[in-house]
Amino acid sequence: MRLEVKRELSELKRIVAATAAFFAEHGIDARLRNVVDLATEELYVNMVLHNTETTADIRLEMRPLGAGVEVSLTDFDVDRFDPTRFQPVDIDAPAEERTSGGLGLFLVSKMVDAMTYQYRERQSKMTFQVGQD
What we know:
Layout: E1 2-5, H1 12-26, H2 33-50, E2 58-65, E3 68-76, H3 103-111, E4 114-120, E5 123-130
Antiparallel strand pairs: 1-2, 2-3, 3-5, 4-5
């Protein structure tokens, strides 16, 4: 599945609908959907909110991978930002002592089985896998 989505948070409804259709079409375990939806939403929202130097659509791709799924989001004409190199989050620190940012990426990294980042020719691509044995 390949979908070009606008840089608008309202596109999240379209993304979730496309994910549901993809899971149904490929018979992927529905219990993985929450993880895929949450990870996709976090990465997409980060691209929309933080990569403000572009107006290009974001490409969402999904493919079956064994018993699970591989999801990629590609952002075009952007500066390098590697979400896999986020600062560690001290989840045990009191809320008032924490710095803002990074918690969503931390949660995604704990929920998915693998997460990789590629950057080439001003294209930033995040890929994650869920449901691998």
